[in-house]
Amino acid sequence: MNSKKFNIYYFGDIGAYDEYNPDAILSKDYAHEILYLISKNNPYEITSFDIATLLNLDNVLVNNLLSELKRINAITERNHTYKINFPVFLENDLYHIKDYLQNVAPIIGKKNNFY
Fold first, then answer.
1. At a CB cut-off of 8 Å and minimum separation 6, what does 108 contact?
2. Is the four-CA dihedral 69, 70, 76, 78 of positive or negative sign?
3. Are 65 and 29 in contact (CB under 8 A)?
4. What is the pLDDT of residues 42-86, one digit of tens each?
5. HSE on the CB side for 6, CA within 13 Å?
6. Comparing C-alpha atoms, which of 91, 71, 95 is closest to residue 21?
């Protein structure tokens, strides 16, 4: 599998650099790849076994990272499957967003609409 990562932006204070700090967790090896796999699937569709298999990683490592991602509320687990808890825009989403915004951009962009 071609490993994928994405950019994550934080808004506001993310707190002390401890076990609850999103940047501390997301800077770990494979955290981004795991989030990418969860985000590109339907909610509660992918399992830890699927993730370990797709990334060719040890299941213990994957489960440890999943636990850390749950601790910072980046993901939620239900019946041993996962969903992402924050907005993610993948490359395929950009085409849909562009098509939608193409129709409303002139309306949004009119200067008098902001007064």
1. 101
2. positive
3. no
4. 999 999 999 999 999 999 999 999 999 999 999 999 999 999 999
5. 14
6. 71
